[in-house]
Design goal:
This protein has nine helices and no strands. It has about 190 residues and is mainly α. It has one domain. Helix 1 runs parallel beside helix 8 and helix 3 runs antiparallel to helix 4.
Length: about 190
Amino acid sequence: MAEILLITLAAVVVNNYVLARILGLCPFIGLSTKLSDAVGMGVAVTFVMGMSAAATWPIQKYILDNDKLQIGFMQTVVFILVIASLVQLVDLFLLKFIPNLHRAFGIYLPLITTNCCILGVTILNISEKYGFVASVFNAIGGGIGFLLALALMAGIRERVAVSNVPKSLQGAPIAFILTGLMALAFLGFSGMM
C-alpha cells in the first residue's frame, strides 16, 4: 500500500507529466485561461488517464507481449485506439449531461485523444514495469497532477489577464513563460522521491 501511495504522490508532484516531463502542453496552454474550464478538463483527463491505464495494461500483458502473435510493435496504434474510444465516451457523456462544459472544451476535448500526456502515461506504465494496480494509480496520480498544474496555471492566468502585461507578451508568450516558471518550481520536488 505504501508503494502505491508513493507512486501516486510521485505522479502528482515529483514526476508531474506537464511540468516535469513536459507532456500535454496543448490542452494545458489552451484551457488554462479560466479556472472552471481548467478543472473540468483536469477531471476529464484524469478519468481518461485512469481508464486508459486500466484498459491498456491487460492488452499489453496478454495480447501485445504474446510471443505467438508478435505484434508488440503495434503498441502505440493500439493504445491510441483505446484512448480515442474512451475520449468518445467522455465526449458523449458531457454532451448529454453537461453541455455547457462540452461547449467550453470546444476543440480541446477531441484533443485529449492525441494528448501525449495520456499516451505517455500508458507507455511509461509498461516501461516502468508497473503491475495493474500500480499502473492505474500512477495514471490517476498523473491525472491529478495534470489537474493541479492546470488549476494553478488558470489561477495565475486569471490574475495576469487583469494585469498590465506588455503587448508583445500577451497571450501565449506569457503563458509559456509562466509554464517555465512553474516547471522550475516543481523541479524543487525532484529530490524528494
